[in-house]
Design brief:
The protein has 17 helices and 6 strands. It is mostly helical. It comes from Mobilisporobacter senegalensis.
């Protein structure tokens, strides 16, 4: 058992670019793909994922410092620092109960697949930390391992169900069939975006506004192309950061590069995925009478969409302004501003790229993150200190745009650390409401597609 654990830990330490090809190869073999073809698919997907991460790294390394410079330039003084999802992930993986929680998440996924309660086969083991951190924080507050496990299992169930419900969006809008996104940092926005999108569609006048990037290209010509949008928005952010002209130009070109490169990396990713997807479809038709399995992947595969990046580039500076004005907020947006793309990706898919609604809904989502981050910062700071990660300087509090700042994670955390008789029903109502809205949205999309096909 120890040998197995050591091997697993070594592969996990190597990161997703090593773990993903191995898992995809194994899945290919299960679906009766020849070993050479399965390995080629796994390696191609790993290369595509590595390419996506390199471009996202380019985005973060350029956009992150610029966003942080904007914070400093506008003199926003808030006492809870956003230290970034990476620091929170380190807290998660340092917990003494992390091994138990990872096993519980994996077991939950398998049991739900067997019971046909989900179609998502989650191979994105690294992002298990989004589910685990909630259980860890519940355990830290209650000192109860069973409650910590229960919170993580509930997070897993919600994650897999939301993944199933949003898979049609991933296929229809992003053009990636047979894939779901069990990444809570992206999924959590659905809880807000789905009902808010429904509400905006009911408001006269507002429901007639439908401005998309392709419209910008139509009216702006050359300046409306994705690369030019990246150049212009990058330049604006550089100017707001009070960069010298050379750095403004550099940021603009780098954002233009991101707009062009990530779709190309995604196409490489799709090249590797298609043989596995086709084999899985054939296998399930033969063995499970047409049942469809979804391969659960990191939301990084969709954040390179030009609409997603454009939305994020607009939402980031507006989130900084909002942080200074939002009543009750004490979180200073900082390290996680560069990953706002993940928070708005499925928002963009729900609106089908309506930039007007994207910005409104994106700001509501980031506003909710700021407030939940403020509410849970004391617990998160104490937890980080308890595992030996003293990332809170001079006694200040920490937060991020991850962990229990995410709307779903916050609701589950509160459910298990408050009055269960009251909080659990509230949580169930929120999830049920989201399911109803998503079901109506899916039905409406199906009707539209049927008309188009005729």
């Amino acid at each position: 058992m120890q040998i197995f654990f050591n091997v697993f830990q070594t592969i996990l330490d190597a990161g997703a670019i090593v773990l993903l090809p191995i898992i995809i190869t194994v899945i290919g073999l299960i679906f009766k793909v020849k070993i050479a073809k399965a390995f080629r698919s796994g390696l191609t997907i790993g290369i595509g994922f590595a390419g996506i991460n390199l471009v996202i790294g380019l985005l973060k390394s350029n956009l992150g410092p610029a966003a942080q410079a904007m914070v400093e330039n506008f003199g926003i003084k808030l006492d809870i620092l956003d230290v970034g999802w990476g620091a929170i992930a380190a807290v998660t993986w340092s917990s003494p109960i992390i091994g138990i929680l990872i096993f519980c998440i994996l077991a939950t996924n398998i049991i739900m697949l067997v019971l046909k309660a989900t179609d998502t086969l989650d191979v994105d083991i690294w992002n298990y930390h989004h589910m685990a951190i909630v259980g860890i924080m519940v355990y830290f507050v209650t000192k109860s391992i069973p409650l910590g496990i229960a919170a993580t299992v509930i997070m897993a169930i919600i994650t897999f169900k939301l993944s199933d419900w949003t898979a049609p969006l991933v296929e229809e809008y992003f053009g990636i069939p047979g894939v779901s996104l069990p990444t809570m940092s992206a999924l959590s926005s659905i809880i807000i975006a789905a009902p808010l999108n429904w509400l905006l569609d009911k408001i006269p006048g507002i429901n007639k506004i439908d401005f998309k990037i392709k419209d910008a290209k139509k009216y702006l010509g050359f300046f409306g192309e994705p690369m030019m949008m990246g150049l212009i928005l990058g330049g604006i952010i550089g100017a707001l950061a009070k960069y010298p002209v050379s750095q403004i130009l550099s940021l603009g070109v780098n954002m233009a590069a991101v707009m062009i490169l990530i779709p190309k990396m995604t196409s490489l990713f799709m090249e590797g995925l298609m043989p596995i997807s086709e084999a899985a479809k054939k296998f399930t038709q033969e063995k499970f009478k047409g049942r469809k399995f979804l391969i659960g992947l990191d939301a990084a595969v969709v954040v390179g969409n030009p609409d997603v990046i454009t939305t994020a580039l607009i939402v980031i500076p507006l989130t900084i302004f909002m942080a200074a004005l939002l009543p009750g907020n004490r979180v200073l947006p900082f390290a996680d501003l560069a990953v706002v793309t993940f928070r708005v990706a499925l928002v963009v898919a729900i609106t089908r790229g309506n930039l007007f609604k994207n910005v409104i809904m994106g700001l509501v989502c980031t506003g909710a993150i700021l407030l939940a981050g403020t509410a849970t910062a004391p617990v998160l700071t104490a937890l980080a200190t308890s595992v030996g990660l003293d990332i809170a300087a001079d006694g200040s509090l920490i937060s991020s745009f991850a962990a229990t700042s995410l709307t779903v994670s916050y609701l589950v955390f509160k459910a298990f650390t408050s009055n269960l008789i009251i909080s659990i029903p509230i949580l169930l109502v929120v999830i049920a409401g989201t399911w109803v809205v998503m079901s109506k949205l899916s039905k409406k999309r199906a009707e539209i597609l049927a008309v188009r096909e005729q």
